Task: inverse folding
């Protein structure tokens, strides 16, 4: 890419998301003519050999073992936070103080108080901010949102979603940050935050929830002996939306042979939409206006040029995968630089965190809890 300025990015964390975001920035200029060239100037991680190898593999210009150095660099315009949830707020606050734009992976924090502190910091500093709810950028999910927003299925009555993974099924799986509430947050916040974001985006605010949680495997092995697990490994909830719709949500990391399966369904007064992640290029649509002889659901191929993000993908029929969600995210962020709107942003992340905390409190106290019980006191 010649003739366009660089958007200089520093990525904090070189694990799965550091890799996915790097991939997004590398591919974005290949699929879209961008006003700027996203370039990863530096990537940080705690292990010197690991971060050096990642920088080389991901195509980052440099690396550091101290994220504070990355944040302080004059040649970094945007700090991209790809570390565990309990670290997001502190890094976002430092980046905001340095006047950098911030993209944070989800969830914004491990508590509403933490998320609120991050949101306050970026709001006071007036820096651009975004949160990595990348599944909004699956074309079929974006199409589902558009069809709800344009009234295709009428008024939403019911919304439901599940997220099933088997990553914690084996009791021999070693303790790491994902089992530690202080650094990893709950399964509600980890898996559920994506679904809650979709709920708020598609249907609107949630008023109150009634949740349950369970931790089936209470300790995990580590080099220092068995460690207590401080998170839920399965949770579910009933949801009442402010607008009157009702919903259900479930997230579990103990669902045998379910790798990362999520599905979202919405029932409106005139139609139904169903998205099922293993068939991510498709959206099912049931239309009450169809002739009785056509009773059933249409399988829309969400790859037509008229569909969201379709022109960034391959020719119709080829489909896309998980990686494209990060490409689409990079395209959206770069296209909106320096003054267009970034969505979803920290305000969205904070709203999601409020629902996560509401679910956690409801499960702890075994009662319906209003989201306002969480938001009225950020706890800071
Ligand atoms: N949007 C998505 O699809 C998606 C998928 C997976 C994870 N995530 C989110 O991305 C973030 C990072 O997850 P990941 O899967 O890339 O994690 P990971 O374990 O693969 O990588 C974590 C990175 O953070 C660094 N790090 C800094 N402080 C750490 C600490 N105290 N403990 C452990 N590692 C620390 C590690 O060195 C590593 O580079 C999390 O917030 C997670 O919820 C999002």
Result:
């Amino acid at each position: 890419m010649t003739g366009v300025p660089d958007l200089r990015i520093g990525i904090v964390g070189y694990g799965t998301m550091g890799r996915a975001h790097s991939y997004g920035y590398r591919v974005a200029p290949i699929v879209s003519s961008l006003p700027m060239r996203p370039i990863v100037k530096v990537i940080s991680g705690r292990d010197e050999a690991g971060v050096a190898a990642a920088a080389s593999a991901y195509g980052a210009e440099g690396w550091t073992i101290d994220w504070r150095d990355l944040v302080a660099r004059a040649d970094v315009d945007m700090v991209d936070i790809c570390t565990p949830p309990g670290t997001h707020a502190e890094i976002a606050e430092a980046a905001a103080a340095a006047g950098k734009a911030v993209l944070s992976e989800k969830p914004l924090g491990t508590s509403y108080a933490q998320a609120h502190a991050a949101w306050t910091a970026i709001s006071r500093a007036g820096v651009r901010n975004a949160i990595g709810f990348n599944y909004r950028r699956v074309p079929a999910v974006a199409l589902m949102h558009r069809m709800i927003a344009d009234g295709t299925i009428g008024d939403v009555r019911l919304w439901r979603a599940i997220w099933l993974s088997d990553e914690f099924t084996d009791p021999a799986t070693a303790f790491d940050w994902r089992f530690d509430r202080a650094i990893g947050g709950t399964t509600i916040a980890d898996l559920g935050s994506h679904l809650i974001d979709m709920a708020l985006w598609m249907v609107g605010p949630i008023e109150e929830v009634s949740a349950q949680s369970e931790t089936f495997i209470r300790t995990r092995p580590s080099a220092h002996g068995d460690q207590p697990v401080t998170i839920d490994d399965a949770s579910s909830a009933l949801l009442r939306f402010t607008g009157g719709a009702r919903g259900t949500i479930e997230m579990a990391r103990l669902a045998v042979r379910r790798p990362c399966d999520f599905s979202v369904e919405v029932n409106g007064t005139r139609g139904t939409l169903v998205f099922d992640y293993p068939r991510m290029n498709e959206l099912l649509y049931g239309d009450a206006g169809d002739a009785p002889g056509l009773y059933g659901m249409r399988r829309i191929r969400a790859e037509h040029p008229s569909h969201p993000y379709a022109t960034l993908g391959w020719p119709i029929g080829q489909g896309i995968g998980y990686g494209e969600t990060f490409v689409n995210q990079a395209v959206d962020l770069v296209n909106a630089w320096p003054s267009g709107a970034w969505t979803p942003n920290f305000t969205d992340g904070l709203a999601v965190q409020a629902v996560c905390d509401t679910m956690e409190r409801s499960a702890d106290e075994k009662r319906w809890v209003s989201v306002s019980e969480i938001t009225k006191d950020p706890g800071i």
Summary: The pocket of nicotinamide-adenine-dinucleotide is lined by residues 13-18, 45-46, 82-85, 87, 105-106, 132, 134, 177, 183, 190 (CB under 6 Å).
